Amino acid sequence: MKILATVTMALLTFAMIGCDESMLDEQADSIRDTTQEQAEDIRDTSQNAAEATREASQNAAENLRDRADNASESVQDAVENKADAIESRGESKADALETQGENKADAVEDLGEEKADAVEELDDK
């Protein structure tokens, strides 16, 4: 839907103002702009999810440590190891979310670039 609206706006702008670029070049630019915005949204979403995951695991680890404050030293050592493991798992999950988001955003950008190139090729024929 965004692509359609963006393409329509580009066409209207071209019709009202005119420019040196062809209509198909304008459409290609619009496709690129739209896919860049979509990719950025995907990256932002994955970054936010990763940060939330990190924060949740850090909070869980801190809560575990807090509960063991008055325990014996051996219990505190065991709790510290478990808390470290929780933080490590959270960091791994967050890293995976970031990687997935980046890969998805890159795929969206690549697809948009392919579509834009195809539109420009129509202009060259």
UniProtKB/TrEMBL annotation:
Q: Where is this region: Disordered?
A: 28-125
Q: Where is the composition biased (Polar residues)?
A: 45-61
Q: Which Gene3D superfamilies match?
A: Apolipoprotein
Q: Where is the composition biased (Basic and acidic residues)?
A: 29-44, 79-118
Superkingdom to which the source organism belongs: Bacteria
Spell out the PROSITE patterns in the cross-references.
Answer: PROKAR_LIPOPROTEIN
Q: What is this protein called?
A: Late embryogenesis abundant protein
Q: Which organism is it from?
A: Stieleria varia
